[in-house]
Write a structure and sequence with these properties.
Blueprint (H helix, E strand, L loop, with lengths): L1 H10 L16 H23 L1
Length: 51
């Protein structure tokens, strides 16, 4: 659901919306989601290696 929302907004940006810039900027929520996904991968790999 989040990916669908992101993809729809990427292809149809609102040009008049405040806070939108021409370049792609990383938001804090995006960074947190990436960090959580990375942590989940690390934990899963650790569990698999431990047995």
């Amino acid at each position: 659901m989040i990916l669908r929302h992101r993809l729809r907004n990427a292809f149809h940006p609102c040009s008049g919306a405040p806070g939108r810039r021409n370049g792609q900027t990383a938001r804090a929520s995006d960074i947190i989601l990436v960090m959580m996904a990375g942590l989940l991968v690390i934990v899963a790999a650790f569990k698999i290696l431990q047995g």
